[in-house]
Specification:
Blueprint lengths: L3 E4 L25 E4 L2 E2 L3 E4 L2 E5 L9 E6 L4 E6 L4 E5 L5 E4 L2 E4 L5 E3 L2 E5 H7 L3 E5 L4 E5 L1 H12 L2 H9 L3 E3 L12 E7 L5 E6 L2 E7 L5 E8 L6 E3 L8 E7 L4 E7 L5 E8 L25
Parallel strand pairs: 2-14, 15-19
Antiparallel strand pairs: 1-13, 2-3, 4-5, 5-12, 6-7, 7-8, 8-9, 9-10, 11-12, 13-14, 16-17, 16-21, 17-18, 18-19, 19-20, 21-22, 22-23
Helix pairs in contact: 2-3
Length: 297
């Protein structure tokens, strides 16, 4: 049986480098796969059975402030909501949290010019969530703002959930293939009433994504419709009734509409970029009569 541990985890964004300090070598061990706000982290270390993550992996500017104090070679993290200040120095096994010394599972570590901290320290000290699967050695981490987005994605408003979904980082089951066509149009197609699975088409390359219960967007099928780079993965079943949202960069327009069970598309409307304050963020719009059907607890 899978044993999950839920606790609190940090969110911060920082250059991730201390000006000085000795790097600590780590013996090779099986690494834990760490996802932060849906993104698989490539640079994760295991030191004495402790998972170490880069400081610059935690990006949550809405909740946290961070800086570097050159005179003392100290990283300073401020959580405004929790009224918490953390001070860290490279190579040390303690941190100052609101002036109180807190012991770390492993010392602050510098490797290849990047600063690493134990995930456990972050989870017990700052805000956010982590879900750990000891069997699969996987940690699902969400920053404070990332956790708020996750709740909307799983069970919130359909339009907002789709907006979050299309910006989620992707994990590929197979190799990632490149588009061989040309163009300036992005089209997102969702099954009617759903936000957690969709297709994206750009330059003739189609990706099919499914977002699982942990908020991981997995690409299970890719197809270069121009034919040059082929097809990877298993083609999904047809969506049936669907909705689409198209961003045409060249024409500076958004199109949206529906697709019936026979595959016939109907454009319901369009919007010009000049009429939108922030065109890059406005892609998904409400479709009259559509109700969300894929909420997950």
């Amino acid at each position: 049986m899978k044993k999950w541990m839920q606790t609190t985890v940090a969110s911060l964004s920082i250059v991730g480098m201390l000006a000085s300090g000795s790097a600590i070598s780590a013996a090779p061990q099986k690494q834990t796969l760490v996802y932060i706000d849906g993104a698989l982290q490539e640079n994760v270390l295991t030191v004495n059975e402790r998972t170490m993550v880069q400081l610059n992996s935690f990006k949550d500017p809405e909740k946290l402030l961070y800086s570097y104090e050159q005179a003392t070679k100290t990283i300073i993290i401020i959580n405004k909501e929790k009224k918490l200040t953390v001070r860290l120095n490279g190579g040390t096994k303690t941190a100052l949290v609101n002036g109180k010394s807190v012991k770390l599972d492993a010392p602050v570590m510098i490797k290849d010019g990047r600063t690493y901290l134990p995930l456990r320290f972050l989870s017990e000290t700052l805000g956010g969530t982590v879900k750990y699967n000891s069997t699969d050695k996987t940690a699902i981490v969400r920053t404070p703002s990332g956790h708020e987005r996750f709740k909307i994605l799983m069970s919130g408003d359909l339009v907002k959930a789709r907006e979050i979904a299309i910006h989620y980082p992707a994990t590929y089951v197979d190799k990632q293939i490149e588009a061989s066509g040309e163009g300036f149009t992005f089209t997102y197609t969702f099954p009617k009433g759903e936000a957690l699975r969709f297709e994206v088409e750009y330059k003739g390359l189609i990706h099919y994504k499914e977002i699982d219960q942990d908020g991981i967007a997995v690409v299970t099928w890719q197809n270069d419709s121009m034919g040059r780079n082929g097809e990877v993965g298993k083609r999904p079943e047809g969506f049936g009734e669907s909705v689409f949202f198209t961003q045409n960069v060249m024409l500076e327009k958004f199109f949206y509409g529906t697709i019936d069970s026979k595959g016939t598309s109907t454009v319901l409307g369009f919007t010009d970029y000049p009429l939108i304050e922030d065109a890059n963020d406005v892609i998904i719009v409400p479709i009259e009569g559509e109700v969300r059907t894929d909420q997950k607890a």
